[in-house]
Specification:
By secondary structure, the chain is mainly α. It has 2 domains: 22-79, no CATH class; 114-248, no CATH class. Helices cover 43% and strands 0% of the residues. It is globular. The N and C termini lie far apart (44 Å). Bound molecules: zinc ion. Zinc ion is lined by residues 154, 156-157, 159, 166, 171, 173.
Length: 249
């Protein structure tokens, strides 16, 4: 069940993301505007807007929490929300839907991608990979699919379209970085025919080929590439190949 009315939820003092107010885990509290509401993080089409979120929150919250915020599922309508029963079509509880739920749960198995949480890397990197697996990484390709107008070029090589596959597998700048790092083997294991497939299937396939240990390294490299990509996009940083390689190692 859920109950959300974004227009009336205060970012810093209400319990909407974790079980304690975000103010408790924030830094630079003096410069925080405590009147800020959750709906102010949304773009006009009511999706989480990474630019707005980073602008407003990155001085105060860890990357991990910001990632969590971007994963929040926002209802597209402006109606006042109410408690709803997610197992029925109309949102109201019925015995039939609860029986259906029990049957459904009996046959339910853990997501195939549960291994992500057992990787040997920092929690923020596991969250990052999980976000990729859910198609939630806000690459320019992904923003365009959501009809958000952004320049589409790859920040590293100026290729015309930055999406997950270009950024992490095809980009020559990135390939070069991987080649220069200790992880040069990864260039040879990326699956073919991937443009018609979803990220989660690609992750699954790579993990089956390389195993958990190598997957942990690859996840860390990808996270670093995404980190530097964001530095360029949000902080006008230079693309400095040696710096990225050094960071990865
Ligand atoms: Zn590129």
């Amino acid at each position: 069940m859920g109950c959300r009315r974004w227009e009336s939820i205060r970012i810093w003092n209400d319990l909407w993301l974790t079980d304690e107010p975000l103010l408790k885990v924030a830094t630079n509290i003096d410069s925080i505007n405590q009147e800020l509401m959750v709906h102010q993080l949304l773009s006009p089409d009511r999706t989480c807007d990474e630019h707005i979120i980073r602008n407003l929150l990155s001085n105060h919250l860890s990357n991990e929490i910001i990632t969590k915020i971007m994963e929040v599922n926002i209802p597209k309508n402006h109606f006042q929300d109410r408690m709803y029963w997610k197992e029925s079509n109309d949102g109201w509880f019925s015995t039939k839907s609860s029986v259906n739920m029990i049957h459904k749960n009996k046959g339910h198995k853990k997501s195939d991608l549960h291994w992500i949480w057992n990787l040997d890397c920092a929690p923020k990197i596991k969250h990052f990979l999980w976000r990729i697996s859910k198609g939630g990484l806000q690459t320019k390709g992904r923003l365009q699919m959501r009809r958000i107008v952004v320049p589409m070029h790859c920040e590293f090589c100026n290729h015309h379209s930055e999406d997950f596959f270009h950024l992490f597998m095809d980009c020559n700048f990135v390939k070069d970085i991987i080649q220069q790092s200790k992880a040069s083997l990864f260039n040879s294991i990326f699956p073919c025919n991937r443009n018609t497939r979803e990220e989660k299937d690609i992750l699954q396939e790579i993990k089956e080929i390389v195993g958990m240990k190598q997957m942990s390294i690859l996840a860390t490299i990808w996270w670093s590439i995404w980190y530097f990509r964001n530095q360029i996009v949000f902080n006008n940083d230079n693309k400095d190949k040696p710096k990225v390689v050094e960071f990865i190692e």
